[in-house]
Amino acid sequence: MTGKYDIELYNATVHYFLTVKRDITMLQGNSASGKSELVRLLTDFGRSGESSGITLICEKPCTVLTAEDWEVRLAHMSGRIIFIDEGSSFVKTEEFARAIMPFIFMRS
Q1: Is residue 80 a contact partner of residue 63, using CB atoms and an 8 Å limit?
Q2: pLDDT for the residue numbered 2
Q3: What's this model's pTM, rounded to 2 decimal places?
Q4: Beta strands in 1-108 (DSSP E)
Q5: Per-domain residue ranges for the chain?
Q6: In terms of Cα–Cα distance, which of 56, 65, 99, 106 is closest to 84?
Q7: Could you give the CA distance from residue 15 to residue 4 in angstroms, rounded to a whole number?
């Protein structure tokens, strides 16, 4: 990814405004800081779009990478901003480290 992207994500009860500088962004933070809610909103929007009651404003598609079929899904996520919860166990594997190398080297 070149540059940075602003992301606005909200529903009737919460509103997030983020700026990211990476294709793959690890969500980290203290307990009760809103990480799980952010992941839930992104996941729900990815499944149902605007009919979910969630609004996502960003120049690039955004998605959450989870443990379920992460290898297959990651291979098809070019051109997206990918969020990963810090508690996802697959991020600690050598397979994941190898799989994200193309994303790291695509940056200018």
Answers
A1: yes
A2: 62
A3: 0.84
A4: 5-10, 15-20, 24-27, 55-57, 62-64, 81-85
A5: 5-106
A6: 65
A7: 20
Number of neighbouring beta carbons within 10 Å of residue 70: 19
**Model pLDDT for residues 46-66, shown as the tens digit of each residue:** 999 999 999 999 999 999 998
Residues whose CB is less than 8 angstroms from the CB of residue 42 and which lie 6 or more positions away in sequence, other chains included: 9, 56, 62, 63, 64, 83
Q: For the chain, give me the number of helices (H) and strands (E)?
A: 3, 6
Cβ 94 vs Cβ 35: under 8 Å: no
51 burial (CB, 10 Å; 0-12 / 13-18 / 19+) is: exposed
Distance of CA 52 to the CA centre of its chain: 18
